[in-house]
Structure formats: structure tokens, C-alpha cells
Amino acid sequence: MLTLTANDVRLGATATDWQHALAQAAGELERAGRTTADYLTGMMTREQQSSTVLGNGIAIPHGTPDSRSAVLDTGIRLLQFPDGVTWHDGNRVHVLVAIAAQSDEHLDILRDLTRVLDQPGLADQLARADDAEALVRLLSTPPVQVKCDRDSLCLGVDAGSATELALTAAARLQRLQCVDRDFLGAIVGQTPVSLGQGFWLVHHGLGARRPALALATPKQPAPDLQGVFCLAGPGDQCRELLERLDGFLAVGERIDTLGADALLARLAGEAPDAVSAQVVLLNTHGLHARPAKQLVQEARRHNARIRVRLLDGDGAAVSATSLTRIIGLGARRGQTLVLSATGEDAQPAITALAAAITGGLGEAVTPLASTPASAPEPAAAEPEPLVDDQPLKAVAASPGLALAPAFVLRQPTLDYPATAADPEEQIQRLNRAIDESDGQLRSLIRQAEGGEAAPILSVHVEMLQDEDLYQATLEAIGEGASAEAGWWQAIDTAARAQEALADRLLAERAADLRDVGRRVLANLCGVSMPTPPDSPYMLVAEDLGPSDVARLDTTRVRGLVTARGGATAHSAILARALGLPAVVGAGERVLTLTDGAELVVDGERGCVVANPAAERRDRIQRRLEQLAELQAEAHSQRHEPATTLDGHTLEVCANLGNTAHTPDAVERGADGIGLLRTEFIFMAHPEAPDLATQEREYRHAFDALNGLPLVARTLDVGGDKPLDYWPLPQEDNPFLGLRGIRLSLTRPEILETQVRALLRAAGDRPLRLMFPMVKDLDEFRAAKAIVQRVQDEIGAPDLQIGVMIEVPSSALLAPTLAPEVDFFSVGTNDLTQYTLAIDRGHGQLSAESDALHPAVLRLIQMTVAAAHAHGRWVGVCGELASDPLAIPVLLGLEVDELSVTSRRVPLVKACIRKLSLETARTQAALALSKATAVEVRDALEAS
Ligand code: PEP
Ligand code: MG
Fold first, then answer.
1. C-beta 841 within 6 A of ligand 1
2. Is 806 a pocket residue for ligand 1 (Cβ < 6 Å)?
3. Boundaries of each PTS EIIA type-2 domain copy (predicted)?
């Protein structure tokens, strides 16, 4: 939609003539940082080519394609001339919408603009408005996009009554994501209304996501049953669709004489006797204002009623003589325009228009086949096989060393027929496969009980029970599809609909949907998912979803290698929670390994070696033995404090996502819980857990801790952690959007309930409460005020309130935060992401996203200095705290607590016991003196 704000509007402008007005418009764009001064020349040239007046007193001045280099940032400015300006084509203009656009966004801006500007009376309201906000509101009403196209036709359905046809049409709209199941419920209770001529209508606004019209026709039409229309959406948004329906009925043709194309043409408002033609648009930048104007001018030359529509669009045909409507089609290069005309000159008009469009409407065009865009994609090169005994660099994702035969997880090929004769049998097969999948998922959940993967698998179970998916599959089966084809079609449509929203979180949900979908499909095809060997193995996969990690038999799997993925993505965190050495982002070459090939995974150095030679193999065996000894020693001393050789003690705590793991953490020697990721508790529930449920969960942890402290982080959703029942607005970059405390502060009642549950569960036991993603004191104070309110009400004798240092601003501002907080806990995963500007899950870049980067270390140093100056303590709860090379540095930077996955607690304690604070300070100074993370690692390894 338009990116117009009140600041982009200038009311009450005056101009001596149109050039003066244009110069002001160019000046406004330049001042807003959208263009350079050169853009005015491009705008002038554009006016010389043809006027940019749209009609209705509105002009849309913009530059020529050549002047796009003067555009710095796409945007628009609006200048209102209440007294009007006479344009060079003689039109009187009251509103200038000056556009700065690079190539293809241009068309979207124009289309949105024309859809809005086309509203009757709007131009007048714009010219008279005396308030910029009101004017922005007038222009920001999103255009209603209706659905009525080939997808919404269900022709020749095996159904005998209007009610059955109505349900088929409604189910189709649901499958197209135009409506939800409430709509279906509303239609079930409706008796179709006769429209005459054997046509019927059902209509409801409940559950409609967008206005849509579907038509279901019977296999054998009868005079009293030709078809049933199903209309979705509130009445005011359905006006256009009702007009189309009216036009269709007015023609009065029998349905059995019409194919799908003719039906769509009638529904688009084309007369049966219309002359029509289809033409492919060749203009590089689509049907933007200038070629659109040429088309309109050509259409006006003929004595005919000419209409134009897109072959693959929302189906509406528009008048060829309306510039705004033609631009509003938003036609792009390569799309097919359907022209139709009635009247005296119909045939010559269509011939001339088709020729003009093919000729480029005044622009130089090239045929589609000769463009690079349509050139055949070069075949993807086969990845080279790994070379024996040669280390391959990858991203270290979970520490540890392992040697075992490889097992490469390859998705099975699933072959199935597209159609099936007996729908009843298909439905039974589908039900069986869903039940089977449900059983498999539930047993996986039991295996993963208490683990971080369990909540994600619960979401899979819910997806499996999704009524929309089921209904869509039934509908496809009703139309003759096999259970497999129907199911996959439903999954694919739903997944694509989510992906199309270009929202990263929804795209991840789409991956989950496909994961669930494949499981059911495999069950339908009688193909079992790949089975790993009975003996120990190293799992190699393209990528691993949480459900794959949960499926792992940890008694046999020795390590993980993925071709893709990043080190701090949550699937990598799950691998660490399982204590498995893992490397990720190793590239496609690892997928060429044959099953059984011997593989070394070094999760500390971040490398894999295939088929190691005898010498390397022996060396690794020796290291494994030493590590096992170290582990045994660390385990036996796990309940001892982590005190350095020179008597300095650090607390070593555990990170948890599930309170059921608390006894395990205590058993492994944790000095407390240093990070409870409470969002995992929220994710395990289909809706926000209430006070009692939360209190019960937190109480488990306190009871198991026997007086040890618990650091609970308040709900941290957004970014890469979505919550189904808390839908977030679509954001271009969710990691920089509403997440963490920012999001919680938009729903203070949820935060307050969580705080109340924590305080009640804690009683007089030590609770440390911290807020995620705090960027400055304002956010901390807002969140703390909520906690204090609850504390005043129910009391909390041993409560500390802190912030996570995850955003560079909070580290830089630590001296201002320190006097008001009780502690800091450094979340190095996010702190590294935001300091180095590298997405924590980025497959290609994550090797460079190293928390041992000197920039991150300096931020930690600043945090500690500020905290200690005010007598506050500092913990590190990000993954850096588990890194053996980083432990001396963090000790030397004088952090007071490290919090790591439970399994690592004994080893981290053992590592600290071998150090002295003095040497650690030297290590920290060495690290801080370096310029890059690689230099830091090299220097630390060499020292
Ligand atoms: C971090 O960002 O370092 C952290 C501990 O929080 P999370 O990984 O849950 O975002
Ligand atoms: Mg974080």
C-alpha cells in the first residue's frame, strides 16, 4: 500500500503555472530524501512525452525511465492546490501526487493509487481537505481485492441438490483461503435463494477474509438447477461481484453451452456477442501510466464499448477508455490481456488495440523469448564429492568431537496416482493416514517429553487436526482426486498462501505444514520415513527441523551435520540441549557422502572430515578418550563450586526451556537456573496459559531448585519465535520489529499475569526476573513498573529485577541502566546478531557471526564495568558461555555467572577450575586487542 504519511502532504499550495507546480513537487521529493535535484528534468521530459493527468483533477507527475538513477528511495509526496493549476493539456489539476520510483515498485504504487483515486467524489474531497491526516486517510484505504477467477469455478460436480453445490462452492473458497471455517458453518445453515433461470445464491459475510464469488455447477444441469453461486464478504465490499452476477444473469445463457473460459468472460461482464482477442503485454515495466494512456487513446478512437481484463487476475474487466481503471489492472510484462468489444466498430477496434499493444504502446519492446528472464536456467551444478581425510570447514553449532559412520537423511520419493475412482475409499484411507500420523507424532512428543522440541511437535499435531485442511482435501477427493493428491494439494495451497505473505514467521509455519503434510503422504503411500541404522551413526541432512531433532535416538546418534542452517538458529540450540556435537552450513557436498562412510565431526572447531586416514583416526580416538576422562572427572566434581586456581568463584547455571528439566539441571551440578526461556512454556499451549497454569509450571522449577536461584526471562516472542495465538503484523524484518519486551509492552495484561504467576510460585524463594531485548531505560522502567505493581500487591522478599543485554544500545547505555537494575544477563546470541548485523539463522553468513568478535567482547566489557561500578552482577546466558575458548575471556572480563545448557554445566565448571583469574585477564586483554573474530580465535588458540 502507499507509504504516505501526513508529513508527505502539503496542503494549500499555489502555483503560477504548471511548471511552477511541477518544480515544487520535485523540490518536495528532494527534500524528503527520495530523489536528487536531477529528477525534475526527468519529470519535465515525462510531461513532454504526454501529460500525467489521470482525470478527476489529479495528476501523477513522475520521471522517465532514464531518470530513475535520480531516485534514492521509492515514495510519494502529495501537493494540494485548492485553487487549481491549468496543466499543459488544458486540464485543471487540484492534486499532484508526485511519484519517485525505481522500476517495478512503480506499477504497484500506480495500481494502488488508481484503485483509491477511482472512488467517486474522492478527487473533490482531496482538493477540499484542510487536514493532512484526513487526506492521508482518504488515500490509505486499502483497495478491496476480490476473487472470482478460474480457481473459483467448480464445474460438473457430482451433486444432486443446490445445498450440496453450495457447500462445494463454499469449501472451494475455503481452500483458496478466501474464507475460514466459520463461513462454512454459516453456509451449512443456509437455504440457497433462487436467482431465476435455475441459478441459486448463498451469501455470508462471517469468516470472509476477502470478497469472493465461487460457482458450482452440477454434472447434469437441469432447468431448475444450473448452478449455485457462493458469495463471501460483507455487502458493501461485494457490490462489484454482485454487479458481475447481475450482468451474468441478464445474458441468460444455458450453462451447459458454456466452457470455463466463456463463463469467466460472462462473469467479467463480456457480452456473448463480443469480439475478443488475447494479447501478451511486452512492456518492460508493465502497463504503467504512459503506455496505459496510449491504450486509452486508441480505444477512444473507436465507436465500440471495449473492455480489458487480465487472463489470470481477479477476473474483473474494465473499460478501455478509463485511464485509472487500465492502470489499476496492474498488468505486468508477460501477462495476457483479454480484450473484448461490442458495437459498430468492435472488430476494427480489437484489431487496432491488439496491434498497438503488441507494438509496445509507444515504448520499445522485445519479444518474451529473447529476454534473459525467460532464458533457460543453467542446470544446477552437481556438488563435488568430499575428499577423503581433508577437513571441510563448516559452522560450529554444538561443541564436542565425534567419529562414526555417516547416515545421510534423504527424503523418500513418493509416487501416487492423481485421481481415484472411489471417493469413499479415499476418505477412509485419508482418515487412517491422519490417525497413523497423529499416533506417530504423539509418540515422538512422549520421547521428547520435557524437551524444547515437544511444544513444536504439539503444533504439528494441531496442524494435523486442522479442519480447513481436511475439508479442502475432502473437496478435492469429491472432485475425483486421490487421497494423496487431494491432501498434498490442500497442504501445498495452505503453505503457499502463508509463504506468499512474505512474512518470515509464516514462511516457517509453511515449512511445518509441509513437514506434517509429508508425514501423512508417506503414510498414505505406505512408505516409511528413512530409518537410521541400529548401530551408532552420524546424522547428515540438508537441514534439520525441530521434529527431526526430536526424532533422534540419542543413544545411537553421535553427531549432526547439516548442509544448511546457522549456529544460533533454534534448531542448533536444540542440538546443544541434546549434547550432540554438531556443525551446520557445511554445504551441499556433505550430501554426497555414502551411508557408512566414516565421518569426524568437530563441533568446537567447526569442521567435518570424511574417511580419515589412519594417523588422523588414531589422533581423534586418543582425543576422544581424553575427553571421556575429562568428562568423567567433571561429572564426579559437578556439585563442587567453579573456583579458579587463585580462589575466584563463578556461578555456573543452566539454561532451560522447560521447567520439567529442572531436576536434571540440579543433578548435573547447576548452581541455579540462569535463563528460563518462558516462551517455550507459552508455545506448548494452544492459547495463552492462564495464571494457574503458569503458576503450576513455575512452581515445579522452584520446588526442584531447593533454594537455588531461578532467573526467569519474561515472554520473548517475535523474531524467530512465533506464537500462534498472538498473530503479529507483517513486518519486513521481524528481528528489528515487535519482539521481546517491545511486544510484551503492547499487551501489558499478558506480562502482568506472567509476573504474577512467577511471584506467586516463588513465594520467598530467590527469583531473578529479567526482560528480553531492552534497548534503553524507558523500556526497562515501563516493564519494571508492571512488576512493582504486582510486587506491591503480593510481595516478593527475594526478588531481583534485571535486563538482558542483547541490543548494542543497552550495552552502550549500561552506565545509565546499572543504577536502576539489580543485574544484567548478556544474551550473546542476539547481541552478536545486532552488533555484527548478521541474522542469527543465516546459513551463509553465520560462520562470520562469531560472538568472540572483539566488538561483542567490548560491549560485554562495558556492561561489566558499569554493573560493577554500581555493585550489580553480570551473567552471560548466550551460547558464548559454552565455548571453551571463550570461557577464560569471559572470566577475565569478570562476568559473575555463566549460564549454559544443563549438559555442559560439569564441563564448564571443570574448565574454570583449571584457570586462574590472573591468566584469564591476560586472555581477555589479548582478545580485546584484536580486530576480528578470526584474529581473536587464532590468538587464543596460540596462547
Ligand atoms: C540470546 O539472545 O543470547 C539469548 C540467550 O536469548 P535467545 O537465544 O533465546 O534469543
Ligand atoms: Mg535473545
1. no
2. yes
3. 2-142
The alpha carbon of 513 and the centre of ligand 2 are apart by a number of angstroms equal to 26
In angstroms, the CA 191 to CA 193 distance is 6
Under DSSP, the state recorded for 529 is P
* Residue 721 bridge partners (DSSP): 718
Boundary residue ending a domain (112, 139, 166): 139
252: cell is 441468460
* Boundaries of domain holding 671: 634-942
Strand arrangement of the beta sheet that strand 537-541 belongs to: 392-393, 607-610, 598-602, 401-408, 537-541, 557-562, 582-584, 395-398
pLDDT of residue 545: 64
How many angstroms does the Cα of residue 800 sit away from the middle of ligand 2? 20
Q: What CATH number does the domain containing 566 carry?
A: 3.50.30.10
Q: Are residues 233 and 285 in the same domain?
A: no
**Amino acid in the structure at residue 415:** D
Amino acid, single-letter form, for residue 847:
A
**Backbone angles phi and psi of 645, in degrees to 5:** -60, -30
The answer to whether residues 535 and 520 belong to one domain is no
Residue 201 lies inside a defined structural domain of this protein: yes
- DSSP string for 547-604: HHHHH--TTTEEEEEESS--TTSHHHHHHHHTT--EEE---GGGGGPPTT-EEEEETT
pLDDT at residue 379 is higher than 50:
no
**325 pLDDT exceeds 90?**
no
- The pLDDT of 830-859, averaged and rounded, is 87
DSSP H helices, 801-904, are: 808-812, 814-817, 828-836, 854-869, 886-892
How far is Cα 529 from Cα 508, in angstroms, rounded to an integer?
21
Residues 65 and 86 in one domain: yes
- Domain assignment of residue 628, yes or no: no
Q: Which of 462, 494, 525 is the last residue of a domain?
A: 525
Can you give the CATH number for the domain in which 173 is found? Answer: 3.40.930.10
Q: Which of 568, 573, 876, 890 to mutate to test the pocket of ligand 1 (most atoms within 8 A of CB)?
A: 568
In this prediction, residues 760-766 reach a mean pLDDT of: 97
* Residues 905 and 758 placed together within one structural domain of the fold: yes
Instruction: Name the residue with the closest Cα to ligand 1, atom 1.
Output: 827
Q: In this structure, what are the phi and psi dihedrals at residue 533, rounded to the nearest 5 degrees? A: -65, 165
CA 847 – CA 394 distance, rounded (Å): 7
First and final CA of the chain: distance in angstroms?
57
User: In this structure, are residues 307 and 317 in contact, taking their beta carbons and an 8 Å threshold?
Assistant: yes
Q: For the chain, what is the largest distance between any 2 Cα atoms, rounded to a whole number of angstroms?
A: 102
Q: Tell whether 144 is covered by a domain.
A: no
The pTM of the full predicted model, rounded to 2 decimals, is: 0.52
* Same-domain check for residues 30 and 132: yes
Indicate if 922 and 835 belong to the same structural domain.
yes
For residue 15, what is the DSSP state? -
Query: Does residue 570 carry a catalytic annotation?
Result: yes
Is the minimum distance from the CB of 677 to ligand 1 under 6 angstroms?
Answer: yes
d(CA 393, CA 405): 19
Same domain, 769 and 912: yes
**Is 30 a pocket residue for ligand 1 (Cβ < 6 Å)?**
no
Which of 677, 682, 853 maximizes ligand 1 atoms within 8 Å of its Cβ, making it the mutation to test the pocket?
677
Catalytic option among 148, 238, 653, 877: 877
CATH number of the structural domain spanning residue 516: 1.10.274.10
**Does 321 sit in the ligand 1 pocket, CB within 6 Å?**
no
Q: Are residues 555 and 665 in the same domain?
A: no
How many angstroms does the Cα of residue 787 sit away from the middle of ligand 2? 21
What is the model's pLDDT at position 687?
Answer: 80
Instruction: Decide if 94 is catalytic.
Output: no
C-alpha grid cell for residue 98? Answer: 508526485
Which of 62, 106, 285, 460 does the annotation list as catalytic? 62
User: Which of 340, 320, 341, 342 is CA-nearest to residue 331?
Assistant: 320
The mean of the pLDDT values for the chain is 86
